[in-house]
Structures are given as C-alpha cells and as structure tokens.
Amino acid sequence: MAGLEINCLIIDAADPERLAAFWSEVLGRPVVGRTGPYVWLRRENGIGVGIQRGEAPGPGKNRLHLDLACADPVAEQSRIEALGGRRLHAYDEAGFLVMSDPEGNEFCVIPEGEGAVGLDEQGRAHYLD
Questions:
Q1: Residues 6 or more apart from 12 whose CB is under 8 A from it?
Q2: What is the DSSP letter of 90?
Q3: pLDDT at 56 (0 to 100)
Q4: pTM to 2 decimal places
C-alpha cells in the first residue's frame, strides 16, 4: 500500500477570488475559508480544493489536469461556458471535451461510469460522437 494519498488539489491563479468563484460553481463546492494566498472550497470525498495566488502561468500545455465526470458532458459544457470557461477545440480530434477555466487551466469533462469514455487503440475517446 502506498504511503501517500491525495489531500488537496491546488490551482494557481492570478486572481484567486475570481477563480474560486468559477470552480465553486463548476464543482458545487462553496468557498469555506481564506488563508494567506489561498481560497478554500468545501472538502468532499476526502479531497480539498484550494485556489492559490500564483505567478503568471508558464508556457505550454498543463502537465496535470482534472477529469470531471458527469451524466451529460454536452450540457455541462454549456453551463461551464456560461460561468466563464471555454472549450479548447485543439483537442477535438482526440475525442475529448477539453475546457479551460477563466485563467486557462485545462480540464476534461467526461461521462461518468466505469468504461464510459470508450478509448480506441490510439487513445481517442468517442463519447462525443
């Protein structure tokens, strides 16, 4: 058994309050506290989410991203866009619904359930077909 477990996901932001409001609505987790450069969302399923004031984003693609599961990814896309997120069409060929938050942090919206994504041999998804 591994000795480490994920405790919190921390998202760097130029404007933590603005980004915390976005992620609070997307995830349905209210803001529960502020400490120094952090804005904290309610902990659920043992995992916390913190938005941390950080420097300007680095160049290039995120090396780590969230996969957010839901019953209807297309409906969630519309809701996320209404909250200030946007779809990143550069990933359309791979078959994933890739979005970014208002500061450009990337995340995927996928269907919930074991095996719901349905990857082919090239690693492309087909849940948006």
A1: 52, 53, 54, 55, 57, 105
A2: G
A3: 65
A4: 0.86
